Amino acid sequence: MLEATNRLLAETYNTEHNARFAVTAAEEGSAFVLLVGDRTNIRCARNTPGCVDLNAGM
Fold first, then answer.
1. How far is CA 58 from CA 21, 44, 48, in A?
2. How far apart are CA 41 and CA 28, in angstroms?
3. Are 44 and 51 in contact (CB under 8 A)?
């Protein structure tokens, strides 16, 4: 079942999804930026519908 699902995604869904939602980038290059500094204050809970501020209320 998983193999069939992966095949469907690769052969059909991804192509259709990209054709429908792809947009041309406004600028060339990568949108990723290098993180500089202390990473110990980054908080994000996994398996949630988005990042959660774990420091809220502190």
1. 40, 16, 21
2. 31
3. yes
Helices vs strands, H then E, count in the chain: 2, 0
**pLDDT tens sequence for the chain (58 residues):** 889 999 988 888 888 999 999 999 899 998 888 878 777 777 665 555 655 565 565 4
DSSP secondary-structure letter at 16? H
How far is it, in rounded angstroms, from Cα 17 to Cα 11? 11
CB 19 within 8 A of CB 28: no
Rounded-to-integer distance, Cα 54 and Cα 44, Å:
7
